[in-house]
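User: I'm curious whether this sequence folds into something compact or stays loose and floppy. Could you predict its structure so I can see for myself?
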Amino acid sequence: MKIATWNVNSIRARADRVEEWLDSSGVDVLAIQETKTKDETFPYEIFEFMGYEVAHFGLNQWNGVAIASRVGLTDVVRGFDGQPAFGKPGEDETVEARALGATCGGVRVWSLYIPNGRGIDDPHMAYKLNWLGKLRENVDAWLAEDPQAQFALVGDWNVAPRDEDVWDIDFFRENNLTHVTAPEREAFHSFIDGSSLVDVVRPYTEGQYTYWDYTGGRFSKNEGMRIDFQLHSPALASRVVAAEIDVEERKGQGASDHTPVVVEID
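Assistant: Here's the prediction. I'll summarize afterward.
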């Protein structure tokens, strides 16, 4: 079974590319982030025509997550227990459309769009760290209940956990940029060091990135970042036989700034 994650940066703008990629990739489960649409305007028909069941969680033109599966789609859940809400000062807080879970082919898949900290002192940074902390609490509870649980946390984590995961770590530090700060990295590594989840893609894709900004010719210069991950529970990680970052899908007109990350399990 092949499980993929892809931040498509607007599903309606890239519906044709997603359809073509699914047709050629042989992926069984696709977790999608940044759909940027409401439920009622999500293009369900594209996936259903190709034999995929699909669940979507979108509230407005921001965020949005989905899961498409041709190996079953059950127990769909919007958000995780205790997922933090966010609201600007003076506005009501909202649990954003950033997490969607479903069971596909016996695997519990979570499509995740972790908040972007925006700035080291921005309120979104505290929100991001709180969000990751609450997700970690859920992971620990799932594994405490069943150490053999088979689940995958996949998506855009908005963290580059190692220096080599950005094209120039000095550039990031000199400009006080997010994604590489110690608190963000500690939050990410807590899933691996504390909860025993496994980054199952890295062993197959050393030195590769998953995201290249549109500006400054970043892609042509390979000035990218590795911020899209698949973290698997120990039981599921033991079944992984291959993984890849499909850099080809970042090429050409109309590409997302992220590219698919694919894992194959036996």
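Summary: The helical segments are 15-25, 44-49, 123-145, 169-174, 182-194, 234-237. The longest strand covers residues 107-113.
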